[in-house]
Amino acid sequence: MAKKDVPPRWDRKMQQRLARGEAAALGELYDRFASLVHGLAHRVLGDERAADGITREVFIHVWEHPDAYDPRQGPLRTWVATLTHRLAVQRLRTTETAALALEGSGTPEELEHKVRRASVAARADYIVQSMPVPLRSALERAYFQRRDYRQTATDLGITEDEARRRLRLGLQLLSTAHDSEAPGAPPGHGGAV
């Protein structure tokens, strides 16, 4: 394994502690990732209670199956996000399929479109949350505050070239939301939608 491929030490240690059954490790993991898990689940499902349920399911799964995470495959954060995404999409499909059968309104194609739209939105949220702060700050100014690259450069105290670079890189990262299989996962890393 090349030096750059070595997973972060915290991820390896956390996986080992969870495998040993350390309850404190689960608490630390929850403190670090609960808002990420809940936010992704809520983005897919659009329902607070359902997102709470998915959050519980994710951490129960991690506790019961700590060896399912392989630190060589990528960061623990990405694995947790991928697990959340998969469970939330399964829940969305189940509830929407049941509603479709009960109400008879809508088609399976509309259901798939809804699932895909929710998945892409969740991936986009994950990408924005995960990108480096300088890129995220530039994008937030351009999008939410309707600032152009010159105004963004002035706001951030950087050159116009640097502002353009940050905006371009941020948008390139964001454009991958349609391409990924799961939040933050490179192709082939996580479960498909």
UniProtKB/TrEMBL annotation:
Per UniProt, the keywords (alphabetical) are: Sigma factor, Transcription, Transcription regulation
Q: Where is the RNA polymerase sigma-70 region domain?
A: 29-94
Which SUPFAM superfamilies does this UniProt record tie to the protein?
A: Sigma2 domain of RNA polymerase sigma factors (SSF88946), Sigma3 and sigma4 domains of RNA polymerase sigma factors (SSF88659)
Top-rank taxon: Bacteria
- Per the similarity annotation, which family is this? Belongs to the sigma-70 factor family. ECF subfamily.
What is the protein's given name?
Answer: Sigma-70 family RNA polymerase sigma factor
Source organism per entry reads Streptomyces coeruleofuscus
